[in-house]
Amino acid sequence: MKRVVAALSLLGLALAQEAHRVVVTNPTTPFNREVNGLLIWVLVFAVLVFGVVAGALAYVTWRFRAKPGQQGEPPQFHGNDRLEVVWTAIPVVIVLILFGLTARSLVRVNQLPAGALKVEVTGYQFWWDFHYPELGFRNSNELILPAGVPVVLEITAKDVLHSFWVPGLAGKRDAIPGQKTLLSFTPEKPGNYYGFCAELCGPSHSRMLFRAIVLPKEEFDRFVAAAKDYAPPVADARGQEVFQQNCMACHGVQGKMPPAVIGPELGFMGNRVSLAAGIVDYTPEHLKAWIKDPAAMKPGVKMPGFPQLSEEDLDALVRYLDGLKVEGLDFKALPKF
Ligand code: HEC
Ligand SMILES: [Cu+2]
User: Fold this and answer.
1) How far is 326 from 290, CA to CA, in rounded Å?
2) Per-residue pLDDT of the chain (337 residues; tens, 9 = 90+)
3) Read out DSSP for 87-101?
4) Domain topology for 115-337
5) 242 Cα–ligand 1 center, Å
6) Which atom of ligand 1 sits closest to the CA of residue 247?
7) How many CB atoms lie within 10 A of CB 79?
8) Which residues line ligand 1 (CB under 6 A)?
9) Most buried among 128, 165, 228, 290, by the most CB within 10 A?
């Protein structure tokens, strides 16, 4: 008994933990509240069905148990039409109710609100690209969104099937090569939301994460204004040279993106909270380790390592990349979901 109480209170503590909010108990978007409501209905019926079935079983076992002194088999009987109709009809009604509720929720969460912000989402082995066609910039692996504004994501993939999933914001959507799938939701709470690829897509599928960074509207607008007429800063001239010689073929820095995208956009590297599709925190040390040997951090990665670069060149390169940022914004301070 003591152990059960201890386990339950631990579970309660875990659910209440600020840093690891469980989405089901803390929905922060209309999308998730809708799904949560549906889940509660399903749970109510499940508990009801379990209670009635387990209760009936217990009652029958007790009521028809062998009495002292009883000899041989008790009297046998077969069938009860009325009972059978009732226990068929009730589950049918429950299924119909759940069907109706599900259909209503589906219609609601699949609505495409007018005036939504459009973002094109593309999955690659093993990273994500986010393009804002109306705002004229792109970012990779970190989807920056304004709080309180509905978004419509147009999701696709370039190589194999992936699936876009930010549990804290909305349900999953498949990312399918050659096809667009739509997902719409309205983030409400500013925060740093963990995202995942939810479709087995290759050796580093489990390292194909990302973040959705929801900013207060004013901060988002400030970022957009800065991103629109962004002149990528050159924090280190030698670093820029190394970048142009070794990295430009695959990576863009806002506007200098080659038409065939091979690697993530690095234009706002210095603003990042995470690196390499969300697998480690963004720090200059991790950045340096990644450039030297990305395969050590992500098996099967499509970026070659650069062990041939000298320490000085590597450091200059890291300084250059770390300098690529919009000043005055700190996404690391946001709460995590
Ligand atoms: C052949 C193409 C190619 C070249 C050349 C290349 N990269 Fe990459 N790079 C990629 C790909 C593809 C990824 C995505 C890897 C993943 O996460 O699966 C990547 C990822 C990265 C990331 C992580 C991006 C993020 O969003 O977190 C950084 C940083 C990076 N590369 C820097 C460099 C630097 C610096 C150079 C030059 C020294 C370079 N890359 C050269 C293809 C390339
Ligand atoms: Cu994937």
Assistant:
1) 23
2) 778 887 777 777 666 555 555 666 778 899 999 999 999 999 999 999 999 999 999 999 999 888 888 888 888 888 899 999 999 999 999 999 999 999 999 999 999 998 899 999 999 999 999 999 999 889 999 999 999 999 999 999 999 999 999 999 999 999 999 999 999 999 999 999 999 999 999 999 999 999 999 999 999 999 999 988 888 999 999 999 999 999 988 998 886 555 557 899 999 999 999 999 999 999 999 999 999 999 999 999 999 999 999 999 999 999 999 999 999 888 988 888 8
3) HHHHHHHHHHHHHHH
4) Immunoglobulin-like (2.60.40)
5) 14
6) 37
7) 6
8) 126-127, 140-141, 246-247, 249-251, 262-264, 266, 275-277, 287, 290-291, 298, 301-304, 306, 317
9) 128
The residue to mutate among 303, 308, 325, having the most atoms of ligand 1 within 8 angstroms of its beta carbon, is 303
Q: How far, in Å, is the centroid of ligand 1 from the Cα of 117?
A: 28
Residue 328 amino acid letter: G
**10: exposed, middle or buried (C-beta count within 10 Å: 0-12, 13-18, 19+)?**
exposed
CA distance 241 to 248: 10
Helix axes 81-109, 30-63, angle to 10 degrees: 170
Query: Where exactly are the structural domains of the chain?
Result: 2-109, 115-337
CATH architecture, domain defined by 2-109 = Orthogonal Bundle (1.10)
Nearest in space to 187 (alpha carbons), one of 26, 28, 25: 28
Q: Is the pTM of this model over 0.85?
A: yes
